[in-house]
Amino acid sequence: MMRSSQPLTGTNGRRCKEDEKLINATLRPGKRGYIIDTRSLNVAQQARAKGGGFEQEAHYPQWRRIHKCIERFNILQESLIKLVEACNDQSHNMDRWLSKLEASNWLTHIKEILTAACLAAQCIDREGASVLVHGTEGTDSTLQVTSLAQIILDPRCRTIRGFESLVVREWLQAGHPFQQRCAQSAYSNSKQKWEAPVFLLFLDCVWQILRQFPCSFEFNEQFLIMLFEHAYASQFGTFLGNNENERSKLKLLQKTMSLWSWVNRSEELSKFQNPLFEANSLVIWPSVAPQSLQLWEGVFLRWNRPSKFLDEAHEEMISIIKYN
After folding, report:
1. Where is the Myotubularin phosphatase domain (predicted)?
2. What is the pLDDT of residues 165-184, one digit of tens each?
3. What are the C-alpha distances in Å from 39 to residues 1, 6, 28, 46, 196?
């Protein structure tokens, strides 16, 4: 599985023969490859008019391109703001709360991301195919899909150390702009241009899988909540900056302590271990059916809603999604 940004084909259909050779070199004899573009075809075509674009089938004859639309960061931020507003609604009117929750589209985004990740995992597991995932820049939705596909396929990514390595490899080293995306929370009065809960959505998707396979993960829900909190506000330097270059210039290794070195201490690690964990070497396939996806109460409702209200609301939400 590979990840990248969009090819710069533009309206003239520019080619990069080195890129074509590189990608074709990953194909096994007699096998096809799949390019999963996390944009809709319409958005990809609009990007082409601005100098970006997508791979031309004539130049990548052994590759099949599939568009699985995952919304851009600005749409995700609006979704989070609406979700927080719904969760802070103190009217105790279930119909009103459910309407706000549905309007936020948060669970829809989770479904779209998990669906794309499952597709990537299926191509690899069931067909033995090579997969290239990209969006526009390759630093947002691309990382969500590649990270979740590895969790589905690779049991090592479901361990604490394996998941930490996954975050470092797929998010920190790959250049997800944490400084821009997590500069302020949804409670902020000012609206930041680049703000977006991309990493939070990834963690939410992991929580959805963890809830469906509670014995297959070495870590618990508190581990995911801890990562969410430190991505936004932390006394450690792990999530500072937008990329490795910035972190190097800031000399964070010399000036700050790593989050991982704190988490992996025995006295802290015990807080994040899942007592139900049993090593599972199999591929796990999460469900994206309406009844399988729930609002992450541990993050969004930990201060506001009683569990009984949430259970009733979830049943209502399933009905709404099913019949809509």
Report:
1. 1-300
2. 999 999 999 999 999 999 87
3. 18, 10, 27, 10, 17
